[in-house]
Amino acid sequence: MDGLDVLWHASLPGVPLIERLDLAARAGFRGVSITAADLDTVSADARRGIGDLKAVAGASGVALTCLDSVIEWYPHETPRRMADAAGQDVDQLLDDCARLGVPSVSALAMFPSLCSFTDLVGHFAALCDRAGERGLAVHLEFTPFPPIAGLREGWEVVRQSDRDNAGVLVDTWHFFHSGADLELLATIPGERISAVQLSDGAPRLVESLLKDTFRHRLVPGEGSFDLQSVVDILGRGGGPRLVGPEVLSEELQKAAVGDTVIRLAAAARRVCSLRTVE
């Protein structure tokens, strides 16, 4: 586990996929995540189809590792903001991933819902079944906010769904802002922690938890989070398949994008090297 499995796209808002692939290759990342918007761009661009994109990714030596993220997998309230993110055609996204050779998708519950917990488990299981029909894995990302608020709820959804292609995505920002239960993390089977997004945080919030989530994350190793304990736990048994930095930061966005990617790669590698050798 060296932190270079995937450059999560949210660190580079607005940077086109083709450019992300080039930047990732230069910095030593083995993969990048993609978005629904990336797929929309491919579909709308008559000059570049799925086959061409596969060729570009193959030539770069950087894998397309995960669609991040599917959000229309459960019934939810109509969002007051980010309405353009709602209304995904999930089956089309899954089909595109299969055609592109993207092996996994993340699932995020980002909007409030009146669903019971049992219903959420059922909807997640159904998503896993739809993904499994196409040979795809599903990483469930929890946040500090309902309807899946924290690692315990996220793990219970995955556990109770009882699907072989399901795992938990641990975003360290969300983990440390939702209780940071290291004991629980250590009890989850290693193969069920399927992806990790690394970021750090300051001892105190700059604005609010919601605003800081999108504006003020810190580069791994530059904040107050106990990332070494997380790395030690996750590194047991070989570690998750997809580990890399995801830093949503207005400060980073002011820097040259190439410098940002190099900085993130070095930070992720440094943090993962802190793992205690047993």
The number of distinct β-strands equals 7
Name the CATH superfamily classification: Divalent-metal-dependent TIM barrel enzymes
CATH class group:
Alpha Beta
Strand content: 5-15%
Assign a percent range to the helix content: 40-55%
* Major sheet: 7 strands, parallel
- Placed side by side, the strands forming the largest sheet appear as 1-2-3-4-5-6-7
- Please mark out the parts with pLDDT under 50 across 5 or more consecutive residues, or reply none: none
Helix-strand pattern: HEHHEHEHEHEHHEHHEHH
End-to-end Cα distance: 15 Å
Overall body shape: globular
Helical region count?
12
Judging by the overall fold, what is the CATH architecture? Answer: Alpha-Beta Barrel
Radius of gyration over all CA atoms, rounded:
18 Å
Total number of distinct structural domains = 1
State the CATH topology. Answer: TIM Barrel
Mean pLDDT: 92
Sheet/helix structural class: alpha/beta
Topology:
Elements lengths: L16 H11 L3 E4 L1 H9 L5 H11 L2 E8 L19 H11 L3 E5 L8 H16 L4 E5 L9 H11 L4 E6 H5 L5 H6 L5 E6 L10 H7 L11 H8 L7 E4 L4 H4 L3 H16 L6
Parallel strand pairs: 1-2, 2-3, 3-4, 4-5, 5-6, 6-7
Q: What's the gist of this structure?
A:
41% of the residues lie in helices and 14% in strands. The chain has helices at residues 17-27, 36-44, 50-60, 90-100, 117-132, 151-161, 172-176, 182-187, 209-215, 227-234, 250-253, 257-272, and strands spanning 31-34, 63-70, 104-108, 137-141, 166-171, 193-198, 242-245.
